[in-house]
Every structure is written in structure tokens, then in C-alpha cells.
Amino acid sequence: MTVKGNDMTATSNQHLHGLWAAVAGSWAEHADYADARGVDVTNELLSLADPQPGDRVLELACGPGGAGLAAAECVGPTGDVVLSDVAAAMTAVAARRAAARGLTNVSTRELDLERIVEPDAAYDVVLCREGLMFASDPIEAAREIRRVLRPGGRVAVAVWGPRERNPWLGLVFDAVSAHLGKPVPPPCVPGPFSLSDVNVLRAVFDAAALTDVTAGEVSVPLREATFDAWWERTSALAGPLVNLLKALPEDDSRVLRARVRDLVAPYTTVDGLQFPGVALVAGARREA
Ligand SMILES: C[S@@+](CC[C@H](N)C(=O)[O-])C[C@H]1O[C@@H](n2cnc3c(N)ncnc32)[C@H](O)[C@@H]1O
Question: Which GO terms describe its biological process (predicted)?
Fold first, then answer.
């Protein structure tokens, strides 16, 4: 049987989603780090989407749930927050973190942000931190977001900015691509920098008929004491890359690591590694 068109996309999506499920343990381990590093992004998301006491909030691609957990404080006991991710292993991590905080207004759900299996107009606010760029069709995902928002409801999303302005991750993809002699991810596969142009991000919201679109940058620098600490963490969290790195023979791993060590030289200081980083944060609403 030949697999074509939508079937092929479905198969490839399943594969990509499986890659994320496989790194849920690492995201659990580094969840507090990810939240601490992303605190300015989360604050900007909350400022744009402005969750109020009593609101219903949906977090998409929640991973360990950092943005949604922060929103749970804003909506209080009369509101509720649904933490959702395509990988059940990720929502399990998010559920454990919500329980550890004693939050009773938080639940979890397995949802694909490209096909949000929720009723129309079910939410006041939708949040997504570093997830929309993994959609194979981001406009369709934005249309889905609009559909599940009530009229007047707000959405805020964060995605990584340009690859060259995020060398803490971009140079890992550069090194792996150079090592394998082919682009990683392949041009047709969405990766962390798929929506890294602010005009493209705006256009996605516009195409989905969301209104009052705003988009800006938030600085997200990364500091690590040592090369090893940075490499262990980054290579454990980089969902689309992890299996690829694990599959490399030992000699290849050594060569790749040396290549990466050369590439990070410009970011090495007496205090360890200091990388710049930039996220794009966009907000919009469904017209009332
Ligand atoms: C870079 S992590 C970000 C996790 C979390 N939002 C954070 O900022 O800590 C990307 C997340 O997107 C999820 N994801 C990828 N594709 C998705 C899709 N189509 N629908 C929903 N979640 C998806 C992954 O499972 C993973 O948890």
C-alpha cells in the first residue's frame, strides 16, 4: 500500500509526537530550570492574555506546564486551567507538578494543537509557550485556537526568534546538520525556528482571522557554568534531536561534541558559557 498526502503527514506527525514523549522524563527533570529561564516570556504571555479571576484557560503544548501553572494563580479558585500536550507523558509531568503545588483548579488533557478536540468558544484564554512552531500547519492551529476561544477571548504564544540570535540551540542544529551532511530538521519538517520571523508569526494570526495582533521580542539569555552542563541539558531536552544523537556511534559523538565545542568558543567567558537568546511573543483576540 502506498502512503500519500494526509496519511504521510499523519505518519510523520505521529513520529514527531513520539520524539517528544520520549523526552518527557528529561523535561520533568529540568522543568524548574525551563520555567526560571522562561520567566520573562511567561510574564509577557500573561500580560498579553491577561487571565482574570474566574477565567477558563487552555495551555497548548504545555510540556511540564510552566505557563499554565502560572496562569492558575491568576484565575484563582473560581477559574480553571487545562494543561494540554500531544504527548500524554508530558501532561503526566504537568499533572504531578500541579498536584505538588496543591492546585485544585488545574486539569490535564492530551490534545494536538492542530486539531484541538474541544467545543467551540470553550475558553477565555489560550496560552502556548514554545509549541506553535512545531505545528505542520500553524495557520490551521491558529484557526483552531480562534475556534475554541469565546468571542472576545485572548491568545498569547511564544516561539523562538531567529536561529542566529539563539546560538544556544541554533548551533547544535548547525553542528548536527554539518556532521550528517544534510539539514536538520529537513526543510519540510517543522523545527524550533519555523516561526522565527515576527512578520510570519503575525501573518499566521492574521490568516486565522484573529484581531488586535501584537508581536514583540523578549530576551532569553542562557548562562551555564560549564560546556558539559550546557551540552547535557540541551541535548537531553531538544526533542527532535535526542534520538538522532543517541543513535550516533561513539566515535561520531566524540567528533560532534568537539565540533560543538569549537562553535561555542565565542560564547565562552571566565564565568562559563553566556549565550544570547530571543523569543517572539505574540498576542491577539477573537473579535467580540
Ligand atoms: C519545547 S517544548 C515546550 C514545553 C513547554 N511549553 C515549556 O515552555 O516548558 C515543546 C512541547 O510541544 C509539544 N508538542 C509538539 N508538537 C505538538 C502538537 N502538535 N500539539 C501539542 N503539543 C505539541 C511537545 O510534546 C513539547 O511538550
Answer: methylation
Question: How far does residue 269's CA lie from ligand 1's centre (Å)?
Answer: 32
Separation CA 24–CA 236 (nearest Å): 10
Instruction: Give the mutation target among 13, 14, 17 for probing the ligand 1 site: most ligand atoms within 8 A of CB.
Output: 17
Cell 505557563: give the residue: 67
pLDDT tens digits for range 178-218 = 999 999 988 889 999 999 999 999 999 999 999 999 999 99
**What CATH code is carried by the domain that includes residue 208?**
3.40.50.150
Q: Determine contact, residues 233/33, Cβ cutoff 8 Å.
A: yes
Q: Which domain holds residue 170?
A: 5-285
Q: Number of folded domains in the chain?
A: 1
Instruction: Give the contacts of 6 (CB within 8 A, at least 6 positions apart).
Output: none
Q: Which atom of ligand 1 is nearest to the CA of 21?
A: 25
